[in-house]
Structures are given as structure tokens and as C-alpha cells.
Amino acid sequence: MKNLIIIVEGKVQGVWFRASTRKMAEELNLHGFVKNEPDGSVYIELTGEDQPVMKLIEWALHGPELSVVEKVSIIKSKFVHESGFTIK
Asked: What is the pTM of this model?
């Protein structure tokens, strides 16, 4: 089980990044949340099994069609999310 914080930078706000992240996370049975940050990045906290977490990270490297991902930072987290995946 992995607990991670993922920060995605680039053109990632206003391009359906949060909604697409939630859809992908729900398909992969991941738990946590996604939100926009004031600096223009997208912040993701998630909990899940190793392989689905890796699939979400791979997806985040490109994001949805209209996004332009410039940088993805991954930080180990101690937060454990147990119920669903939401947009904040």
C-alpha cells in the first residue's frame, strides 16, 4: 500500500485535470483527493495498491488532452485515505 502526494506543474488548471484525475483514481480504486493550488499546480493525495498508484503516476506525467505537464513531484506521505476520491 502506498500513500503519496503528487504535485503536477504546467498548464494543468482549466483543462479538466482534476476531473480526469478523479475519474482515473476511481477506475483504479484509489482513495484521496485532488485540488488546484494558488500557484497554478495541481495537488493530489492518494492511497492505494502499488500497481494502480504507478498507473496514476504514469497518467499524471501526460494528464488529459488539453494539459501540458512540465513537472511531476512525488512525495511519500503518512496520510492514509480510506473512502473514495474527491475534488476539493
From this structure: 0.95
